[in-house]
Amino acid sequence: MKREVIQTADGSTTIHLPEWDECYHSKHGAIQEAQHVFIKNGLALFENQKVSILEVGFGTGLNAFITLLEARKLNQIIEYVGVEAYPVSAVEVLNMNYVAELNANPDSDLFEKMHKSNWEEEIVLENNFSLIKRKQFFNEIVDENKFDLIYFDAFGYRVQPELWSTEIFQKMYNALKINGTLVTYAARGVVKRSMIEVGFTVEKLAGPPGKREMFRAKKI
């Protein structure tokens, strides 16, 4: 499938799949979306804590990189697991402008290390941030009671509804610890029903720029 790097409305880049007319991030702003959905409504809930995070859809590494930067401000220790079935190529990574757009030039080496690190191996990027990238399909996730927070960042329901199924959300529910939280940019009724069916308590929040709403779900 053809992939092309495009610029989003906030100046940051993303990958576009013309065949599906689908992007890895919002065309209204890749960085703005990540900061609103995953940081403001997810990571920020765990200030001054040790946080185990599962990202479903590691993609370009944007969410992981922003999490590393924000964890310093929030005084957190992060254990980060990123799951990706189709890794982004080195060429595509070089075309991502996240370091510049986030004014994080001193940390450019950390963004590169995220992508150059071996799959299935833990690396320590900073004293407070470790990363494991796992190359696997979402239906192969079998973790149980392991994570405090899930970034659910799969391709949209329109193009891959199977990734938003009850089966997948059961795996997400199982992977979370009690009182764990899942955040996603999605706000479709069918997604909410699947979440509730497996036991999540779901709340609808204001969405990022260009999107009216998003979901946050909790395992009680």
Helix content: 25-40%
Overall, the morphology is globular
Terminal CA distance: 40 Å
CATH evolutionary superfamily: Vaccinia Virus protein VP39
Q: How many domains, in number, for the residues?
A: 1
Report on the architecture of this protein:
- This protein is an alpha/beta fold.
- The chain has one domain: Vaccinia Virus protein VP39 (Rossmann fold, 3-Layer(aba) Sandwich).
- Helices cover 27% and strands 29% of the residues.
- The strands form 2 sheets. An 8-stranded mixed sheet has the order 6-7-5-4-8-9-11-10, with helices on both faces. Strands 1-2-3 form a 3-stranded antiparallel sheet, with no helix packed on it.
- The chain is globular.
- The protein starts with a strand and ends with a strand.
- The mean pLDDT is 97.
Q: Which properties best describe this structure?
A:
Rossmann fold, three-stranded antiparallel β-sheet, 7 helices, globular, 220 residues, eight-stranded mixed β-sheet, alpha/beta
Give a quick precis of the structure:
This protein has 220 residues and is an alpha/beta fold.
List the helices and strands and how they pair.
Layout (H helix, E strand, L loop, with lengths): L3 E4 L5 E5 L4 E2 L6 H11 L9 E7 L5 H12 L3 E7 L6 H5 L3 H4 L6 H9 L5 E5 L2 E6 L12 E6 L13 H10 E9 L4 H9 L3 E6 L6 E6 L2
Parallel strand pairs: 4-5, 4-8, 5-7, 8-9
Antiparallel strand pairs: 1-2, 2-3, 6-7, 9-11, 10-11
